[in-house]
Batch of 4 targets.
Target 1
Amino acid sequence: MTKTAYGFETLDVDPDSLDATFTTRNGLLIYCRLLQPVDTPLLIDLFSRLSPESRRRRFNVPLEHIDASRIEEEAQRLAAVDNSTVGGAILAFAQQPDGKELIGVARLGRFPSEPASPEAEAALVVRDDFQGQGVGSALLALLALLARRMNVLTLVASVQADNEALFVLLRNLHLPLQRHTTHGETSISLTVADIPTPKNRA
């Protein structure tokens, strides 16, 4: 079993709510649920815990010394999803001594002017200290379930051409995808139907 595919193998999901659990490669139980607008503070906290490199990977630009008001404004925008038409997202939480902490987010979004488009842009970020444990693959599986619910057929993303961790994840999952690189940026297109479906919670 490959390292990055681990999340798929341990994922257990409620098909109605998309609440889910899975076990990381090192044995930690992770909880997942849909993002809600009230989760803005969680997104801000996660951003504060990302390394500069992870921030760059997620947003495609360097993000250092950002004003707190701008961070809050962007977090509010990202949390304003309906998980139905224009945008949706899945959150992953790890149980820590002080409670559950947000460690990862997978999201998809259509242009507001095209709420019925079969194509949506996707993004994925995992906190640095949880990378390589199967969190990304589990979130991708849940994002595919959300995409199917929203009638999204294709996920697209623009990432840095040197984002080898993402490409390794996709290769290890044997997912067919279209990939085009120009000027240091790679465009990816992935058919939702090609992403494996996790087992339903009993």
Target 2
Amino acid sequence: MNNWVKEFPGAVTVCDKGGIILEMNDQAQQVFAKNGGKTLVGADLLACHPEPARSKLGELLEHPAVNAYTIEKNGVKKLIYQSPWYENGEFGGLVEVSLVLPENMPHFIRSPKPPA
């Protein structure tokens, strides 16, 4: 794992196209500590998830696409962003990034400037 992502303040988990966990940054290891943390590297991602998440991840591995959503757990809101990764144009697996969202996160709508 690249040095910048190791201490990135969001959980980053990477699996291969077979669903085997390849990498977890420090934050991901902390988030999943009760499930084994760093020892999950080499484990089957699908086995780590209950339904319906397991089926959704299986679908993403079969038909690579982005899956993005928000959750709230124990009063903490998070953005979950699951995306395929590629190497030389070939599907390699999935990356999941989980970010804690601030309570009062602003939302901006940006419009392009009209031509002069």
Target 3
Amino acid sequence: MKFLLILLICIFSCTACNNETETPKTSTKKSVIDHYMKEVNKDVALEELEQIDLLLERYQWPVTETGTGIRYWIYEQGNGRKLSNGDRIQSEYTIHLINGNEVYNSDNDGLMDLDIGNSNVTPGMAEMVHLLHEGDGVKIIIPSHLGFGLAGDGQKIPSRATLIYDLKKIKIIR
């Protein structure tokens, strides 16, 4: 009986010691991984910003930047009212990746049809439409974190894609 009690105490002591020594190691590994991932994400975001700046330098678009990092240029002022939640709009459009590859356009894919204030749009487009008027023509550069992010759209837009929209003849249909 004394032997069994000593054995249980030894097992308990060893188990307790192992848990105490593993927790800091696990915590340290997680901390190192978290730090590394933050640095990688920061580097990727900075690279994306550099690519956007190079694009703007090349084309000399006189863009305005929102607080979230969207850049836009209203190259044709519409004479209609400002777009608002509840509006349904249609527009001719093209969508390019930052490398210049066209991924979608209204000639091939039909008019863009959006319900403003509904969840059928990316965060970037949800933000942008509130800055526009019926009839506007606008180029919009949406950073990946406000577009389709890490997942892409599962079709033509890859992971972490910066998107360049060109919307023309925005029309409120409801």
Target 4
Amino acid sequence: MHILRTLSIVLIATLAFCSTGKINNAQAADIAGHITRIKSTVTTVRGNETQLLGVGAIIYIGDTIKTGPNARLEMRMLDQGVITLGENSEFKIEDYLFDRDKGVGKVVMNIVVGTFKAVSGRIGEIQNSSFALNSPVATIGIRGTEFWGGPLDGVYNIALLKGKAIFIENAAGRVEITQPGYGTTVGGPNAAPTSPIQWAPAKLQRAVDSVSF
């Protein structure tokens, strides 16, 4: 996989070189982002190895990231998007391509378990780009947004926090949320997302607290 690197990627690659003393071209081509904030124990499974992560660590395509009890993790991605994970979460980066000059933008990520918050980056500036965050119950797509997802009150919830819109889709149906502060619940991969409703401020706060440092 070969894509043109933006200035942010050059900086990330430089960080990697300074911290490890080496980085090869294949590794640079697979960089998805880097860690900007961390709390407690966070690891990544990379190939057959499990590694502890710290601030400044490089995140690669194919990494499976796991947070421990009371942990938090914030990652800044290639296109300046930001992903935050709550405790006891597992998150895998399947693909993260961003080349504004060539018009290439493709993101595929999986939240296997736990809570997350995502702020979309510049990938939305690319026409025909795609962004898919797969949760245990549905796929979430974005249109320049900040959104949250995870278990809450015994069921999986997804809410739009800021921005334009998100859509939530699985085999049973699809809904679009266009108003910040509104959310949907999804009972499972074969249950259609409910019609969006406005969340009470207390519920929104509990959601945000689950990924706050």
